[in-house]
Specification:
The chain has one helix and six strands; from the N terminus they run ββββαββ. It has about 110 residues and is mainly beta. It has one domain: OB fold (Dihydrolipoamide Acetyltransferase, E2P) (Beta Barrel). It has a five-stranded mixed beta barrel with strand order 1-3-4-6-5. The longest helix is centred in the middle third of the chain and has 10 residues. The chain is globular and about 45 Å long. The N and C termini lie far apart (about 35 Å).
């Protein structure tokens, strides 16, 4: 079995770090990943905006060395995250969890 994604894109804003309730450092970044084809409607290249979760050292390094517009590569795995509301209802969505980061331009 293989669960791996490789994304290369630009940060849409300066990364910020926060701490979880148990003291772990985490950063959530959004990568603008350009599509390699043009839109039929506009004739321009479009991008997908993908949220990635970075933990501990990766989060610290990204906050320290990168800013809005930096190009980075992310090797990640996909996980299913569940959001529960009204004590019974929920929805699930994929979460991109970074395993390795490469700074291409900072």
């Amino acid at each position: 079995m293989l669960n791996q994604s490789i994304l290369v894109g630009r940060l849409t804003k300066d990364p910020e770090i926060r701490e979880t309730a148990d003291g772990k450092q985490v950063s959530t970044i959004t990568l603008a990943v350009a599509r390699n084809f043009k839109s039929q409607e506009t004739g321009e290249y479009e991008a997908d905006f993908l949220r990635c979760t970075l933990w501990e050292g990766m989060a610290q390094n990204t906050v320290q060395y990168c800013k809005k517009g930096s190009t980075i590569a992310v090797k990640a795995r996909l996980a299913t995250k569940r959001f529960v509301y009204d004590d019974e209802k929920y929805f699930e969505y994929p979460e991109i969890i970074a395993e390795k980061i490469s700074f291409i331009s900072t």
